[in-house]
Amino acid sequence: MALMVKMRSPAHSWARRLVAAVRCTEWATGGKVSARRFGSQRQLVMVEPSPTAGVAVLKLKNPPVNSLSLEFLTELNINLEKLENDKTFRGIIITSDCPRIFSAGLDLKELCGKNPAHYTEYYKALQNLWLRLYLSNLVLISAINGSCIAAGCLISLACDYRILADNPKYVIGMNETRLGLVAPFWFKDNLVNTIGHRASERALQLGLLFPPAEALQVGIVDKVVPEDQVQSTALSVMAQWLAVQDHARHLTKNMMRKSTADLLVKQRDADIQNFISFLSRDSIQKSLQMYLAKLTQNKG
Amino acid sequence: MALMVKMRSPAHSWARRLVAAVRCTEWATGGKVSARRFGSQRQLVMVEPSPTAGVAVLKLKNPPVNSLSLEFLTELNINLEKLENDKTFRGIIITSDCPRIFSAGLDLKELCGKNPAHYTEYYKALQNLWLRLYLSNLVLISAINGSCIAAGCLISLACDYRILADNPKYVIGMNETRLGLVAPFWFKDNLVNTIGHRASERALQLGLLFPPAEALQVGIVDKVVPEDQVQSTALSVMAQWLAVQDHARHLTKNMMRKSTADLLVKQRDADIQNFISFLSRDSIQKSLQMYLAKLTQNKG
Amino acid sequence: MALMVKMRSPAHSWARRLVAAVRCTEWATGGKVSARRFGSQRQLVMVEPSPTAGVAVLKLKNPPVNSLSLEFLTELNINLEKLENDKTFRGIIITSDCPRIFSAGLDLKELCGKNPAHYTEYYKALQNLWLRLYLSNLVLISAINGSCIAAGCLISLACDYRILADNPKYVIGMNETRLGLVAPFWFKDNLVNTIGHRASERALQLGLLFPPAEALQVGIVDKVVPEDQVQSTALSVMAQWLAVQDHARHLTKNMMRKSTADLLVKQRDADIQNFISFLSRDSIQKSLQMYLAKLTQNKG
């Protein structure tokens, strides 16, 4: 859901950059992705220690725009599971290694011209990622150092705290409707739990992308700081969260979030079928194919 | 629920105007209403084209205060159904043709001294109106050019966006408790989805009517503009909503609202019984009859 | 949950005062509490008339910090039940008779080294208190003239309106996680209904205690006034609430709150078992015992 479908002149600079970037770079990796899925030499997720004991920094590194390919989702899930099970870690700061973009969301190439088995695998990986993040026992802080779009925004919303770089070119939100798509209900639930029902209604229907000041006001991020202070702020906020005993904190977190997560857990299969059925519509596939064909043509 | 019961000196100027207006005008139409319900020469709802293609302007025209008589509710439902099914329309701006009042809410004469069959028909029409508005596939924008009370407020809350004229004499809210009445639970649900639980708790119990600045702050309207800019603002906001593809937008709207609407759909009959039972209490009927008798007497 | 466990240097002055106060005073009453439960010569709850007809002032008087002992909870329940059933009363202002503290929350001595039957009795009294307050037909206003912590905060949240004295040393919030404890789900539900999901998530996990300006901003109180105006403001706010007919107001209140209260009512026993099971963990008992031993030693 990262790329523009049917939107002729993208208004946001992130979108222009995104389209340009995709044209220049992303397609070069095209057909090889699935072949080297588990034997990739590229490292899409980098886990590094932080200055704070017990805190890892997880960097999203799928240039140019951290679009969520199946390979990338899989690596994210694997790395998050490892960190969750490693008792030396109490918190993770999630940030981007790509300039100017946190994540552009789903990789549309995964959604186009593939078979239902592929869509199922892909969507399950996305469901898994959200459930893993949303219910994590670790403290998760998003250090959002670039635009944060659609499923990229979901990753942030599933964290415990969101810090956005104060750059007016960066935007955050769920713009699915702008591509003719509909966010899954659990995207909506996570957004409603964050900014409330009314603001979600408007933001989701209009596909709003909020620049920093508006993002702070609507509550889709918790803090806006100068770009060079995003990481240091993340560390100081993390210290505040780690001052609380883990056990009491994650029982409390679970009490706050379990009922929302359960809405997905209890209907995962129906949710998958709904996604595949929507995606398989001629009108949706045609939109995606036209868009991708246009990109390919432009590359030629 | 439009009129004051047991309130000896209405504090708000809208209420004074309303009482005066009712005394002068409304009773003149009294007994004839039901007879010409479907053959009315009065046109209570005016549907006009707007400068924007695909957008209709629906004007409420039941002077003096747009109180929601059965005839008026019926015409509203018919007109809205027609617009919903007419593929040339994508959005409706709902506004008032009566000066200084958007709608004063339910017509108390429909609630007093009638039989249960009448109450049932009336209340069903109200349920239908709300369900139709709340789940409409069209973009609905309220251009609130006057006070907007009780069930009149409900009409606005069921829209996608609310613009209120910046006139300190205009107020918006659900004041049922001020009349000794209780708003139905779906009024409450729609309000909670708009301004949150805590603000609703206070507003509904106290029967608060918010002037423009407070209305904006609590979030019961989305925008306050000078009175002569209400219609033009409605058109420009409409353009923003129409920039989104209809299909994705209304699937998203449905995802946001269906569970709330279903709470009513699943217990429509029980809700009707509850309403009739409340309305049939001696104390409630006595209040209404005393109030109406006083109005008649004053007219004499 | 009133006292600090494992927190070596309490940051808040209320906590330092609290620890000091407990050391000096509270233990003196220790073993005798249960013996004179129903024959107490101390009066822990004072009910006084107010200048407004129909309004009682209920003063919490369990010095030094109004910690909620079983005796105190029982007296509260008895007094509230009496007021609820006395038709001369329409509203209660709840305030503290102890300087600088509204209530420090649960009495940890009730949670430590006792048997399951005692825990059950204690926790049931707490459940009863909340249900009684949250669904009261009376107008309840909290005149919060001191720090208001954990279950003390719950008492305020269950009221209809909260006025906090503007003293930067006073804080309000639910700090259970700071003691290694977890607030019951109905504390959480009441908080979410008051300040929303996102703010509750952060406040509960971090165990935040808000000073007046922050408390007002997050919405955990409705008004902050100079300390010497807390009582007079409570009376004028009460007048506003009493301007509404009782019957319509409490039907509306019930409509807003019943579904939340029912979540507890429907699983009271499971909630009790969950509480006892958590409390009986070695790690929790050890924390409490170490803390209490330390207090006793310091007294020696």
UniProtKB/TrEMBL annotation, chains A, B, C:
It catalyses: (3Z)-dodecenoyl-CoA = (2E)-dodecenoyl-CoA; a (3E)-enoyl-CoA = a 4-saturated (2E)-enoyl-CoA; (2E)-tetradecenoyl-CoA = (3Z)-tetradecenoyl-CoA; (3Z)-octenoyl-CoA = (2E)-octenoyl-CoA. It holds the Pfam family ECH_1. GO terms for cellular component: mitochondrial matrix. GO terms for molecular function: delta(3)-delta(2)-enoyl-CoA isomerase activity. Pathway: Lipid metabolism; fatty acid beta-oxidation. Gene3D superfamilies: 2-enoyl-CoA Hydratase, Chain A, domain 1, 6.10.250.170. SUPFAM superfamilies: ClpP/crotonase. Keywords: Acetylation, Fatty acid metabolism, Isomerase, Lipid metabolism, Mitochondrion, Transit peptide. GO terms for biological process: fatty acid beta-oxidation. It comes from the Eukaryota. InterPro entries: ClpP/crotonase-like_dom_sf, Enoyl-CoA_hyd/isom_CS, Enoyl-CoA_hydra/iso. Belongs to the enoyl-CoA hydratase/isomerase family. Homotrimer. This is Enoyl-CoA delta isomerase 1, mitochondrial. It comes from Rousettus aegyptiacus (Egyptian fruit bat).
